[in-house]
Specification:
Elements (H helix, E strand, L loop, with lengths): L2 H6 L3 H14 L5 H12 L5 H13 L4 H25 L3 E2 L2 E2 L1 H5 L1 H21 L3 H25 L6 H25 L5 H25 L13 H4 L5 H8 L3 H13 L4 H14 L1 H20 L6 H15 L3
Antiparallel strand pairs: 1-2
Helix pairs in contact: 2-5, 4-5, 4-9, 4-16, 5-7, 5-8, 5-9, 8-9, 9-10, 10-15, 10-16, 12-14, 12-15, 15-16
């Protein structure tokens, strides 16, 4: 049994049921849409988002239909943003599958994104889950703002650490925060409890993103060697920000020049990776990642022991220990 399958055990029945409900939430009378949504379900990833929803619900009460709608709502709105992202980035692949725009053209992909968005909104409104809709709509707003903030700041390339945290909090962590808050709110309306679960998800999300940053510089299990992908895409990550903040003027100029103008030259990219490794940037980022992880686990420790609590603890550790 894989690590994630083990973590899923307390919510195994809900996860099996979720796939059917998610597919039903996308159903349409238009054959083309049905073909595309079937493809979307088929290419699903690790399903960590619904896991966070269901485990957060189970931690705070009795799982119910509203918990299923919370999970579907997040997947619908998140999938819509991914479909639109692929169009904007002109990306042909997503998780090893062809992107929708690669298979069906941009116009269709954008319309499918709009359709998924509308299905999510209707799912909430028809069931009067306005509290869930508010949580998830706020997350989508923050994710858009985070993307725009990154585009605005990335032009200069020497962003400060505080701006980096603003960006990843909005772009990445907000979504996991919404999963935990919506899962909790589906079974428990107490605002302080929902806010506590949102903060838990936010901290896990930040740790998750720092882990992603580290893959660019450190040899990881299945990857084998540093990827350098973020450098090629001119993304400012925490290890690189740390290295730049502690570099002298000459080194700083050379690194920024490489990231800006020579980011496809393997030799120059390797120089940057080596410099970041020698600067202590990796250890610094790992330290920050563990701080956020511990902070998330502290929130969980305010709850009595239960299978859901154990699984969430393991899921937090999985986020940090994963090798891809």
């Amino acid at each position: 049994m894989g690590k994630l399958d083990h973590i899923k055990q307390p919510i195994a029945a809900e996860m099996a049921e979720f796939e059917k409900k998610f597919r039903a939430s996308m159903a349409s009378r238009v054959p083309l849409l049905d073909r595309i949504t079937h493809y979307i379900v088929k290419r699903k990833g690790k399903q960590m988002r619904p896991m966070f929803v269901f485990l957060s619900a189970q931690l705070n009460g009795e799982l119910n239909e509203s918990s299923h709608r919370a999970a579907s709502l997040i997947e619908l709105l998140h999938t819509a943003t991914l479909v639109h992202d692929d169009v904007v980035d002109d990306a042909n692949m997503r998780r090893g599958f062809f992107s929708l725009n690669a298979l069906w053209k941009n116009k269709i992909a954008v319309l499918v994104g709009d359709y998924l968005l509308s299905r999510g909104l209707l799912l909430s409104v028809e069931n009067e889950d306005f509290h869930l809709l508010k949580i998830v709509s706020n997350a989508v707003r923050e994710m858009s703002e985070g993307e725009l903030l990154q585009i605005e700041k990335a032009r200069r390339l020497d962003i400060k650490e505080s701006i980096y945290f603003d960006i990843i909090e909005q772009k990445t962590a907000t979504l996991i925060a919404a999963c935990c808050a919506a899962g909790c709110a589906s079974v428990n309306r107490d605002e302080a409890t929902v806010e506590q679960m949102r903060l838990f998800g936010l901290k896990v999300g930040i740790a998750f993103q720092i882990k992603d940053d580290l893959f660019d510089y450190a040899a990881a299990g299945k990857i084998g060697k540093p990827t350098g992908i973020d450098i090629k895409e001119q993304k400012m990550t925490l290890p690189l920000i740390y290295a730049l903040e502690h570099a002298d003027r000459k080194d700083k100029k050379r690194i920024i020049n490489t990231v800006k103008n020579h980011n496809l030259d393997p030799k120059r990219v390797k120089e940057v990776i080596d410099y970041v490794n020698q600067s202590g940037g990796i250890e610094y980022a790992q330290g920050k990642m563990h701080e956020y992880k511990e902070s998330a686990l502290e929130i969980l420790n305010t709850y009595p022991d239960s299978p859901a609590k154990t699984s969430l603890q393991e899921l937090v550790n999985y986020v940090i220990d994963r090798d891809q």
